[in-house]
Specification:
Number of helices of chain B: 1
Number of strands of chain A: 0
Largest sheet of chain B: 4 strands, antiparallel
Oligomer: heterodimer
Shape of chain B: globular
Strand order of the largest sheet of chain B: 1-28-27-26
Structural class of chain A: mainly alpha
Strand content of chain A: under 5%
Structural class of chain B: mainly beta
Strand content of chain B: over 45%
Chain lengths: ~1100, ~350
């Protein structure tokens, strides 16, 4: 199709069509015109605009009923023309505006005429295009007071459409059109921003529509969620743009008190609104109602874009109308703050951006009114929080707390104004305390404990090395959602960050001291306050906020720490075991029963140091949590102070270590992780490093507390933990404390032995580990000699490979040398070696007569401990006796290389040991077990102290053991299957199992071996219980190693499987006594053993 | 611990371990040191609080050990911040800082008196004085704000005291008792100056148990009293009250005063449960005094009334020295290689 560029050409083409249309107004003609128009260029069209518009307007204006279809096509055609041209005359604009609006006018009702949706859409688009096609200047003059009625009509028309139409398309179009009409279009076609005067004029004009627009839009916004999010978004946009325009503080500030007389007729003037203070106030109030409604509905809108738009709304209104809409500020801020933790990240981000922007612009901080509003909101929220927490579900609580958090974020440093008011602070603190209430009904916590007796050696490093950097999971009474706890922590951290820390800590300290009920929560709050104050996990919205200085923080932390570790807050009853109570009223072996029997609690009340009335499970549980929270707090303090925490280590480390040795598993774990925290915060590699570097502080605490053992019954535990987590470098520092411990033990032999036995065990275990067995000195010596000799020959392996003449020579030389050594002709430099290994006492005594030969510290300690063990072996408490046997065992291990020290002590320990082994303790209950332990000790002793022990053993012990085996044998042979559960059986078993290795180790003589064999032979009988037979077999296996011949003979005496035919008939016929009959009960075992022997 | 010690440690009423007016009621628990410093690795023979106001932060504690080391302890971290080794492994018997600060005097059994420069962590020997007496006598100084100060050291002959002007090390005079007096070796020295006159005075405790007051400029004994049977081991003088106290190897603690004519008079003696005092020090506020006992105890007395206030039982070897800080902290050093620091009656 040809394009008509010049108006002349176009005119030629269009004229007939226009004439045709003017004559007969049919859809076809209109469409014909429109087709023709498409061939006309824009410039030509502009020239001919009036001409072309005429027939179209004429069609619209012709009175009489018209077909909708015709009107629609006319409007569409008109829209087309307008979209390609500009409207340059005001009159035309006004007329077109009226004519288009009139299309939807129904004379009978205020509602839009009941016409087809297509027509409505066409008209709306027409209006929209018209407004866009108007020249800027023209458009401004269009908005003069006289247009008010017509404009009003159009506005209400569009609102009606937006509100009532079913078609989403129309609704959106209507809203778009409204936006254009209200001068708030956001498209790019409006280049010139309005100047202040123009803005004011427009504002005056639009103010008349504000009630209508705002209410109608509110209805749309708060309508059904199903209507689609784009409609709500558009409505929100128009709402805040319009309100923001009309109520803008900037415009209102310039409104004069007296209304200027507008040069319009009276009727129109009545419609005009003067935006003076009263009006603003009234309108603001009314808008507040609407805004509240909107927020209520939109903040829970399922579509995130809607909520995002709400953030925009809040931002726009708060920024533009902070004064005029001051009443709405509360709800607006609440909406904003509530969306900070929105589930959609976009909304969150936008919210944070806005908050940050507000903070930057000091919207809140710089605005007294806002701050007041916020603090009021905070107050009322804090007031209602306890109630809300009671009945809201977790999601609700989450929202509520998000709100709280948001308020605090927004208030920033201004939060101090709130905190300075006693009422506010109390509300807030009570609310926090209530929400944070823990559920302490979990019995498991009290139950799960670390039984020292079981696995002392198993626990130490594995648990300490765990990088356990998390807070223990805890259970709250009022919520289960972990996110809520996170929010609460953030709330406290923010308080700590912005608030006056002294004030807060003071306040919560009062609560902490006020009641046990508050104590745990207050402690949690302290922990977070300090973390916050250090600015560790706080994102700062308000820059240049003056933080708590490190010195102040340290002071505060010190005071909290003091409170935490004070006697009454640190040493809480966490279990009902007598030992833990600091007093050992434990009767013989009542330990296990005491835990289960409730009657035991009556004893506890009598302890003055812990005079709390009989602790229930709950209260103990609560105490455990209390300690854990405080421990965690210490870890957090360490992080908060960083290197500054070093100075606090001297008071904090000791209590933490004390708890690391606690019996309750949870406390132990938390204390261990606290140690890890301290390591991280203060730059130590490991708990071991931490302990080693600060052992002076710990030793100080231990030695001072040992002086008041009644007050500090846990002191030995600390030493225990220290020893378990440290290495040999600790020893010089601990040495004097070990002496203190032993001295204290001497004072309290009867009362507190149990708590010391643990330390002694840990100490000796540590010594045994730190100074490992250097093997038998003789062996070592040999080895060193051999190494010296072989520095050229490199041992036999090389010899085999390439045997040269030199090698052989060297070998011979070495051989000779070794032979020399063996013969005792020791050369000079060998002598030096010898001297080192043999304790060089005599020489030293000669040179320094006044100085005693210096024994290594560990040997001295082991000797001192062994000394005590000798006494404690006869303690009346079975548990202690067992433990002491362990310690004794370790003592022997440590002392094995110092025979001169060991032997006298072993000698002294002997009677006591024999007594243990042979006494008929009425408590035969655990005797079997005990004997097993004894044998173990004996075995070690036997291994180390050779001859001396052998004779003592043969003389004192063996007869009794053998005797008891013999007397018990008939009983066990007759007994039924139940017998294996009796203690007599266990005793037999233990003795039989222990005898074999002992005999071998002690290298017994023939007579003694026979004694053993005679006692054990009975147990080879098939009548004996299976386990005893096995044990007896093992004895004989050992005996075979010592003396195979006599064992062979003995066995054959029992049962002889083979007939021995002499190799020569002249020789005597050998008959061994063993009966060959199948009734012989020894057959199976003897055969088994003889097989082994071959 | 011996039995005797045990009974006192647990606080038997009626002994000298409790406040007299509290003896009727329940005895208070035995006091504890505030903290204990470990790590000297040998017996502690000298203690001195220094630093004070001019040192940045908290005061320091200097300790001298049998092995010849001087440890400088920070009372804030409770750790040794430096170790000075200047006496060749011989026991350090006396430590003193100069009022100008950053300078420390240490006397050792190696017959050397070292002047240390501690400023900016230099810890070096600036100067040293050769001593000529192998006795037990500790030196004394008299120093004001001026650069020149006076030092009294045991002299060449066994009964002499030598006065030096420092830092030039010029000998001012030698104080030798009259030939017939025979007081034995000087055991302890105290240099001071009365407010009224600029003349330095020297108090000397002698081996025979007497205390003598010397006028240094006239080189004569003003007064001399015999207050102990045994050698005087330590003395301290309160120049405001013109009263002094001395302890000896015997059981008595003697309090003596000085009248206007510069004559010494014994005011009273206090009988101790166990003999042997190695050091006596009056607290700077002149309210209490502390003695270091051979019985492993530190005893605290009210200075004006000489009422026994407390027995500090902590050490398990002879206590060799006691020192007070300006703020009232008490430090005691003992043969058990520990230094205990006590806060006593802090509000007086």
């Amino acid at each position: 199709m040809a394009v008509f560029d010049t108006p002349e050409e176009a005119f030629g083409v269009l004229r007939p069509v226009c004439v045709q249309l003017t004559k007969t107004q049919t859809v076809e003609n209109v469409e014909h015109l429109q087709t023709q128009l498409q061939a006309v260029s824009d410039t030509a069209l502009q020239e001919l605009q009036q001409y072309i518009l005429f027939p179209l307007r004429f069609t619209l204006k012709t009175p009489g009923p018209k077909r909708e279809r015709l009107i629609q096509s006319v409007v569409e055609c008109l829209t087309f023309v307008l979209s390609s041209t500009c409207v340059k005359e005001q009159e035309l604009l006004q007329e077109l505006f009226s004519e288009l609006s009139a299309c939807l006018y129904s004379p009978n009702s205020p509602k839009p005429a009941a016409v087809s949706e297509e027509l409505k859409l066409a008209v709306i688009q027409g209006l929209s295009t018209l407004m866009h096609s108007a020249y800027g200047d023209i458009l401004l003059t269009f908005y003069e007071p006289s247009i008010l009625p017509r404009l009003g009509f159009a506005v209400s028309l569009l609102l009606g459409l937006a509100e009532q139409e079913k078609s989403r398309q129309i609704k959106i179009a209507a809203l778009k059109c409204l936006q254009v009409l209200l001068f708030q279009c956001d498209c790019q076609d409006h280049p010139r921003p309005l100047d202040e005067l123009e803005q004011k004029q427009l504002g005056d004009l639009f103010a008349s529509f504000l009630p209508g627009i705002s209410t109608a839009l509110t209805r749309v916004i708060t309508g059904d969620f199903k209507q689609g999010h784009s409609i709500v978004i558009s409505s929100l946009k128009i709402f805040y743009k319009t309100v923001g325009f009309i109520m803008a503080d900037e415009q209102l500030r310039r409104i004069s008190k007296v209304q200027a007389k507008p040069a319009v007729e009276h009727k129109v003037a009545e419609l005009m609104v003067h935006r003076e203070a009263d009006w603003v106030k009234n309108t603001g109030d009314k808008l507040t109602i609407l805004i509240k409604k909107i927020i209520e509905s939109v903040s829970v809108h399922p579509h995130w874009k809607v909520r995002l738009e709400l953030v925009e709304l809040v931002e726009a209104l708060l920024l533009k109308c902070s004064q005029s809409l001051v009443e709405s500020a509360g709800p607006l801020l609440k909406a904003l703050v509530g969306l900070v933790n929105d589930e959609s990240p976009e909304v969150q981000a936008q919210c944070n951006k806005v908050l940050k922007y507000f903070a930057d612009q000091k919207v809140v901080v710089g605005n007294r009114a806002f701050a007041d509003i916020l603090s009021e909101s905070l107050h009322s929220l804090a007031t209602s929080l306890p109630r809300l927490v009671n009945y809201q579900d977790d999601q609700g609580k989450f929202c509520t707390l998000s709100l709280l958090l948001g308020y605090l974020k927004l208030l920033g440093p201004k939060v101090n104004f709130v905190l300075n008011s006693v009422a506010h602070l109390q509300r807030l603190s009570k609310a926090l305390i209530q929400v944070l209430e823990l559920d302490v009904a979990d019995i498991k916590i009290v139950e799960e404990r670390h039984w020292n007796s079981d696995d002392l050696s198993a626990s130490p490093k594995t648990s300490a090395a765990q990088p356990w950097n998390q807070i223990q999971r805890r259970y709250f009474r009022f919520f289960t959602d972990e996110r809520i706890f996170l929010l609460l922590r953030q709330v406290c951290q923010l308080l700590g960050y912005y608030g006056n820390l002294y004030l807060l800590v003071d306040h919560f300290m009062e609560l902490y001291r006020e009641s046990v009920v508050y104590r745990k929560q207050a402690a949690m709050i302290f922990n977070e306050l300090v973390t916050g104050a250090a600015g560790l996990e706080v994102e700062d919205l308000h820059e240049k906020h003056n933080k708590t200085s490190p010195e102040e923080l340290r002071e505060i932390v010190t005071s909290i720490l003091e409170e935490y570790i004070s006697q009454e807050n640190w040493y809480l009853v966490t279990c009902i075991e007598a030992e833990e109570m600091g007093e050992e009223l434990m009767m013989k072996q009542s330990g296990l029963q005491a835990i289960t029997s409730g009657a035991h609690t009556s004893q506890i009340t009598s302890f003055p140091a812990f005079s709390k009335p009989s602790p229930t499970i709950c209260s103990m549980n609560s105490n455990i949590w209390q300690i854990c929270i405080q421990l965690e707090g210490i870890g957090q303090f360490a992080f908060a102070l960083g290197k500054d925490f070093h100075l606090l280590l001297m008071s904090a480390l000791y209590p933490v270590l004390e708890k690391a040795g606690d019996q309750t598993l949870l406390i132990r774990q938390v204390a261990t992780s606290t140690m890890m925290d301290i390591c991280h915060a203060c730059g130590y590699d490991s708990p071991r490093h931490l302990i080693n570097q600060n052992s002076d502080y710990l030793v100080n605490g231990i030695s001072l507390n040992l002086r008041h053992l009644a007050l500090h019954p846990h002191t030995p535990k600390v030493l225990e933990v220290m020893l378990r987590n440290s290495d040999a470098s600790l020893l010089p520092l601990v040495a004097d404390v070990v002496q203190d411990v032993l001295a204290t033990l001497d004072q309290f032999y009867d009362k507190r032995a149990a708590s010391f036995v643990g330390v002694l065990h840990a100490l000796l275990a540590a010594l045994a580990q730190w100074f490992p067995d250097k093997g038998h000195l003789g062996q070592l010596q040999e080895q060193s000699l051999r190494e010296e000799g072989s520095h050229l020959s490199r041992g036999p392996a090389t010899l085999e490979n390439s045997t040269t003449a030199e090698d052989i020579e060297q070998f011979l030389l070495n051989y000779l040398k070794e032979k020399d050594v063996a013969d005792g002709n020791i050369s000079d430099f060998d002598n030096g070696d010898e001297e080192q290994s043999v304790p060089p006492k005599v020489d030293e005594n000669d040179t320094h007569p006044d100085v005693e030969p210096a024994l290594p510290v560990q040997i001295q300690i082991a000797m001192d401990v062994m000394e005590r063990c000798i006494h404690l072996l006869s303690d009346k408490n079975l548990k202690i006796r067992l433990k002491i046997l362990d310690v004794l065992d370790l003592c022997v291990v440590v002392l094995q290389s110092h025979k001169n020290q060991l032997l006298p002590l072993a000698h002294r320990a002997w009677p006591s040991l024999v007594h243990r082994l042979t006494n008929d303790d009425p408590l035969a209950v655990l005797r079997a077990f005990k004997v097993g332990l004894f044998l173990q000790v004996l075995r070690t002793l036997g291994g180390k102290c050779g001859d001396f022990l052998r004779s003592r053993f043969c003389k004192d012990v063996l007869p009794k053991l053998a005797g008891s085996l013999v007397t018990q044998a008939p009983i066990s042979a007759r007994a039924g299957p139940v017998y294996s559960h009796t203690l007599a059986f266990k005793l037999q078993l233990a003795v039989l199992q222990g005898l074999g290795p002992l005999c071998e180790r002690l290298d017994l003589g023939e007579g003694d071996l026979n004694k053993v064999a005679d006692a054990c032979v009975i147990y080879l009988s098939a009548k004996q219980p299976m386990k005893l037979q096995e044990a007896a077999r093992s004895v004989f296996l050992h005996l075979m190693k010592v003396d195979p011949d006599s064992t062979w003979f003995l066995l054959n005496e029992l049962y002889c499987p083979v007939q021995f035919t002499p190799p020569h008939p002249s020789l005597h016929h050998v008959r061994l006594q063993g009966a060959t009959g199948q009734q012989n009960p020894y057959v199976a075992n003897v055969l088994h053993l003889l097989r082994e022997l071959q | 611990m011996t039995t005797e010690q045990k009974s006192t440690a647990s606080g038997t009423p009626g002994g000298d371990c409790t406040l007299p007016d509290m003896a009727a009621t329940i005895p208070p628990p035995p006091p504890d040191p505030q903290f204990v410093l470990r790590g000297t690795q040998s017996a502690v023979h000298a203690l001195h609080f220094g630093g004070g106001a001019q040192a940045e932060g908290r005061p320091l504690l200097f300790s001298g050990s049998q092995s010849g080391l001087v440890h400088i302890w920070s009372l804030q971290t409770r750790r040794a911040i430096a170790i000075l080794d200047g006496h060749g492994g011989q026991c350090v018997t006396w430590l003193q800082t100069l009022p100008q600060g950053h300078q420390l005097l240490s006397q050792g059994r190696d017959l050397k008196l070292c002047l240390w420069d501690l400023a900016e962590g230099r810890n070096t020997v600036m100067d040293s004085v050769r001593l000529e007496s192998v006795g037990f006598c500790k030196s004394a100084i008299l120093a004001g704000g001026q650069p020149r100060w006076t030092l009294a050291v045991p002299g060449k002959d066994s009964d002499e005291v030598q006065i030096l002007e420092m830092p030039s090390k010029t000998s001012v005079c030698t104080l030798k008792p009259e030939a017939d007096a025979k007081p034995g070796m000087p055991m302890c020295l105290e240099l001071w100056q009365a407010n009224s006159s600029p003349r330095p005075l020297l108090l000397v405790g002698y081996e025979d148990g007497s205390v003598a007051l010397w006028d240094v400029s006239e080189r004569k004994v003003c007064s001399r009293i015999a207050c102990h049977e045994e050698p005087v081991m330590g003395l301290d003088f309160d120049s405001q009250k013109a009263r002094g106290v001395s302890g000896s190897a015997g059981k008595a603690l003697a309090v003596w005063s000085l009248d206007g004519q510069q004559a010494l008079q014994v005011c009273r003696t206090h009988e101790l449960t166990n003999p042997g005092i190695s050091d006596v020090t009056i607290r700077p506020d002149r309210k209490i005094l502390a003695t270091a006992g051979w019985d492993h105890r530190v005893r605290v007395f009210h200075w004006r009334t000489m009422k026994p206030l407390a027995v500090l039982a902590f050490h398990n070897a002879t206590v060799h020295c006691v020192a007070f800080a300006a703020d009232g902290l008490l430090a005691t050093g003992s043969g058990d290689q520990r230094i205990s620091v006590w806060s006593l009656y802090p509000h007086t």
